[in-house]
């Protein structure tokens, strides 16, 4: 029988049984009406974090997971008998690398054929294939069968875990959530994140940008001293993404001036550089190449990530992996300066982005009042040093926790969007669109309708004209990006506007771009001169999950949950039987108890041990059905406890 199934599956205690304060605590958590709360979720590349606004206390609580950690790995794993999410998934990653999925945020809303994905795939131990519409699909083995999963499904599993963490804390179902995304996420990435939320059974009240959420966390703290306008620069370097934003805070108004970033730069890239360095060293020393071995790479990567963190507070550290490959141990060391050298180009790229953001905001760096560090990778000393130099010695703000600030801000926003919640901070948030949006006009030219860093929500209508005589329809292609040639940008979608009246070239029609609070775009076109209206709206559905698919995945998520529940029930039943086998064996071995048992009772216990053991083995190392196990555990309780119950010493003995 698998040893893993013997672990304690029950919570260590339930608040109800520990003391009588359960009711009071529940009310404290949920606000005095005891109503459900809206939560804020920071869905990270490597870790996720969930928080809630506590109405009665007028503060945010960052919620611990079942392991007591405030951050939960964004990992999902599949085995022959169960699905694991969070710490449990990450902990077994080295032994089950092909079926342990992480980095979903690097894939979400992207196309399989994007070169950036191809590069990542070389580093991932799990398999990614192309699905319909060039959507990436993750291949895993679950219950012995190959399963193809959409990235949205993987992200939805992480979101489900975060929701469950909040529900366990609040002791009530949670439906509403604000989810954060990197400021630089494009339209498809945002929409795919919303879809993941829907599959997780959440009502996604709003998608907000990570640096903006962090600014809320920071600004709430500081705003008492903020009567005048204050320029705040947020530097958010996480596990897989990098964002910067310049905000001004004045009174209750939080206004993003500009944002810039790279949705594919972060701690994992720094880890990869170290992994490459040690793969080379191992090759040199042992003449063996581990670059094609996912297990060895995963173990080396974990050791490198630990070393990278250590180098944030020491100048040299060791990297050790027992039996890394073909029984050979690996032991080496790395200095902070070597780590910095390996990543210098990436750190410099971060600083170029900082510069670009300030340029876009048209704010000189000496006018920045506070520089706030967010994201785990902002702890890297070289990064801080470069920022220090850039801002000419301005002290960097360390008063907020870089791991929690984003979830904190999301929780405040969730409370603000919930009706009837009192005691919420009074603030108004204005965010911006990270990329320019426009349409393709004659000559493959990008005609920008909404320039990047425009405050949202926004609606703009431009008048365009036909390019040929008697043109009856026009193709409208919507792009996002900064390149002058439209086709070099990202095509979001296209539609035809039919029904134009016969007219010489130069006939006018309107194109309207509208971006809502979530940063989601709708484009429509209208011909109005003849009085006939043609209006079409596109919502970038291409590459997005259809309503039918989402419905299917919600059902699938239910069946995953049911399977998880079934697995736990079976594990509990097996634990229970195991417990009885242990107790019965111990009773038979104990001289005192033995002397008090009749030979008939001993016989009964012995045969019960044999039957319980065979049920657990199921004859071929496969345990029996749940009901059979549960029924027999009940039978044992009825049979065994009266026998041993008559022996006073038995229970004190145990
Ligand atoms: P986040 O996405 O904000 O949770 O950041 C996670 C990333 O931060 C991971 O790549 C971690 O390895 C990295 N990280 C966390 N703590 C440190 C540290 N002390 N030094 C360097 N990197 C860190």
- DSSP strand tally: 28
Strand order of the largest sheet: 19-18-13-14-15-20-23
Say which molecules are bound, naming each kind only once: adenosine monophosphate
Report the average pLDDT across residues. Answer: 87
Biggest sheet, open or closed, and with what strands and sense? 7 strands, mixed
Which value, in Å, is the CA radius of gyration?
29 Å
Ranges with pLDDT <50 over ≥5 residues?
1-34
- Kindly estimate the percentage of residues that lie in beta strands according to DSSP: 15-25%
Distance between the termini: 24 Å
Determine the fraction of residues in helical runs and give it as a percent range: 25-40%
Provide a short characterization of the protein structure.
This protein is α+β, with helices and mostly antiparallel strands and 654 residues long. 39% of the residues lie in helices and 25% in strands. Adenosine monophosphate is lined by residues 44-47, 238-239, 267-268, 305, 308-309, 312, 375-377, 379-380, 403.
Word description of this protein:
The structure is a single chain. It contains 18 helices and 28 strands. With 654 residues, the chain is an alpha+beta fold. Strands 19-18-13-14-15-20-23 form a seven-stranded mixed sheet. Helix 12 links the parallel strand 18 (370-374) and strand 19. The longest helix is centred in the last third of the chain and has 43 residues, at 547-589. It is globular. Mean pLDDT is 87; it is low at 1-34. Adenosine monophosphate is lined by residues 44-47, 238-239, 267-268, 305, 308-309, 312, 375-377, 379-380, 403.
